[in-house]
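Z., the sequence and structure:
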Amino acid sequence: MLKIIYSHLGVFFLQASFLSKSITIDDKMIELNIWDTAGQEKYHALGPIYYRGSHGALLIYDITDQQSFVKVKVWVKELQRALGDSVSLFIIGNKLDLESNRTINYEEATEYAKSVGASYAETSAKENLGICNVFEELCRAMLEAAKENPNNNRGNVSNTRRTIELMDDEPSSRKSKCC
């Protein structure tokens, strides 16, 4: 079970949060090692430490905050530079519950994701919408990438421990159950 913590006040972390989670996809057990840096600048220089050897990444922005979308574009470039094109990227528009305050339209976000070879989804951490689906789809994408290229430069997904980096522009806190 994936535990999601949300607070409208936000939680400010002094270090990156870490969560280990196992998910079964198509009768295969996937162990996710998730680092959540919340997109904070203080972690930017440490990024290569967190995502070295990663097979996938969730890059999360706030659909009501244009600057958070700009930051996602910076992270995409950095991840692709460090990990190449074989990393499974998902760009996630969060705060779907604030649709009326949206500043980044769906079409712009999906077109950008497509242009960089990423998948796109929208979620609401507050309403617990789409969270489990995003993790499941990322696992499926990583498994498919491993089948297509079993000898990529990061080793075999099924035989090694790897990291999925979860980056969100704003720290959040909510308790709910999923996956």
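The beta strands are 2-3, 17-25, 28-36, 56-62, 88-94, 119-122, 163-168, 177-178. Confidence is low (pLDDT under 50) at residues 1-7, 9-15, 155-162.

Let me know what you think.
H.
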